[in-house]
Amino acid sequence: MLMTERDRLASEIRSLAAKLGQDRTSLIPILLEVKRKYHTIDSYAMQVIADLLGIHPVEVNSVVSFYAFLGGHRQGKFVIRLCRTISCDMQGKSRVERQLENDLGIRFGETTPDGKFTLEFANCMGMCDQGPALLVNDRIHTRVTPEKVHEILEACRRVFGVHAAETKEVVFK
Ligand code: FES
Question: What is the average per-residue pLDDT within 51-72?
Fold first, then answer.
């Protein structure tokens, strides 16, 4: 029998629940894994998770909507979050913002058409004395300058080399 995308997703979520637990305390760990693998959490995934954990889909939806890092919308393979809080703002956040937008050809809140990069603003990351601070997926960069933006994006782009595997790690200097 042919397995559809939905079958595959449901089967993956069932395996995650078997591994991570089938009660509501496993909700965020499961959501994080789904987001990491599929870069999005759609309504079907939320329904499957809700059924498995015995909770209402509205509850799953509200958790996904509440946490920016779980955002149900599709994001690029690299999600770049720039701190927009006051210390970083005063330390040159706008120059970094402009450089990112110019280099990627998108505005904050958007994803490149090839699905590789998403730009988002974030609130304080606790690195206020080393701003501007930038998060690339789960890796923090501090004292970011427009020149450093170029290096960071180049390191990300190397991951997408001709035969680069989806899971290949990015190496920042
Ligand atoms: S204000 Fe940007 S990290 Fe705190």
Answer: 85
